[in-house]
C-alpha cells in the first residue's frame, strides 16, 4: 500500500509540476506582493521604525517569508478547486490508483512551488542588503521551520480548495493568513503596540515563528520561541490534515 501510494503520488506530482512549469506566472505572481512589501517597508518606512537592529531588511525578512508562503498556498486551493469543478478529480479516481495520492500530489506541488518562491524572495533580500552569519545548522533549522509552516498552510489550503463554491472563495482564505504577520513582531517590536494589540500579537503563531527564524539568522539563542512555533505548527497541521481528509473522503464518496 505504501509503495503504491508513493508511486502514484510521484506520477501525479510530475503531472502537476509540468503544469506549473508551463505557467510560471503563478510563481511570479506569488512573489511580486512579498517583494513589493519588502521594498516599501525597507525603503519607505524602514527609517522610521525603531527595531534595535542595524539592518531593517534583516529584521523584517522572516515575516516576508511567511507572507510569501501564505500567498503561495492560495494557488494550491485554486488548483484543487479547478480540478474538482472540472471533473478531473473524478477521472483520476476512476483509475487504479491510491485515492489519497491525488491529494498528496497537490500538497507536494505546493511545497515545491513555495520553495522556489522563497528562494526568489531571499535572493531579492540579499540584493537589498540582507546578510546572515548563520551556519549550516542554523540555516537547516530555518528551512525546517519554513517547511513545517508551508506544510501546515498547505493542508489548510486543501480545505477551501475542496469545499469552496467559486474560485474566488477558494483563494480568499489566504487573506487573513497574509494579514497576520502585520499584527506580529514581523515588522515592528510588539512592545511598541497598544495593549490589546500587543497581547494578540505576542500570543499568535506568527510571532513565535518570526522570532525563531530571526534569532536563527542572527545567531541568537532561540529560547522558548522555537517550541511555541513547533507546537503551533504541529497542532494546526494535525487538525487541518484530519479535517481536509474528512472533506476529501466525503467529496469522493
From TrEMBL:
It is a multi-pass membrane protein. Residues 25-251 form the ABC transmembrane type-2 domain. Keywords: Antibiotic resistance, Cell membrane, Membrane, Transmembrane, Transmembrane helix, Transport. Pfam families: ABC2_membrane. The chain crosses the membrane at residues 27-49, 61-81, 102-130, 136-158, 226-244. The keyword DNA-binding does not apply. The keyword Cell membrane applies. PROSITE patterns: ABC_TM2. Belongs to the ABC-2 integral membrane protein family. This is Transport permease protein.
Amino acid at each position: 500500500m505504501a509503495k503504491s501510494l508513493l508511486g502514484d503520488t510521484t506520477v501525479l506530482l510530475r503531472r502537476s509540476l509540468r503544469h506549473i512549469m508551463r505557467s510560471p506566472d503563478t510563481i511570479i505572481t506569488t512573489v511580486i506582493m512579498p517583494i513589493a512589501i519588502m521594498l516599501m517597508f525597507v525603503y519607505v518606512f524602514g527609517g522610521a521604525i525603531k527595531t534595535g537592529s542595524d539592518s531593517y531588511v534583516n529584521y523584517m525578512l522572516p515575516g516576508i517569508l511567511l507572507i510569501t508562503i501564505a500567498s503561495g498556498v492560495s494557488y494550491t486551493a485554486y488548483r484543487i478547486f479547478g480540478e474538482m469543478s472540472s471533473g478531473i478529480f473524478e477521472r483520476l479516481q476512476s483509475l487504479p490508483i491510491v485515492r489519497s495520492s491525488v491529494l498528496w500530489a497537490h500538497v507536494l506541488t505546493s511545497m515545491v512551488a513555495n520553495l522556489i518562491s522563497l528562494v526568489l524572495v531571499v535572493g531579492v533580500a540579499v540584493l537589498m542588503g540582507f546578510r546572515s552569519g548563520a551556519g549550516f545548522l542554523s540555516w537547516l533549522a530555518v528551512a525546517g521551520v519554513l517547511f513545517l509552516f508551508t506544510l501546515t498552510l498547505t493542508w489548510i489550503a486543501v480545505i477551501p480548495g475542496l469545499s469552496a463554491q467559486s474560485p474566488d472563495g477558494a483563494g480568499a482564505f489566504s487573506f487573513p493568513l497574509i494579514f497576520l504577520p502585520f499584527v506580529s513582531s514581523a515588522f515592528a517590536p510588539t512592545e511598541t503596540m497598544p495593549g490589546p494589540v500587543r497581547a494578540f500579537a505576542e500570543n499568535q503563531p506568527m510571532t513565535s515563528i518570526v522570532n525563531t527564524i530571526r534569532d536563527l539568522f542572527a545567531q541568537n539563542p532561540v529560547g522558548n520561541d522555537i517550541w511555541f512555533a513547533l507546537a503551533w505548527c504541529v497542532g494546526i497541521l494535525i487538525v487541518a490534515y484530519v479535517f481536509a481528509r474528512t472533506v476529501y473522503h466525503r467529496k469522493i464518496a
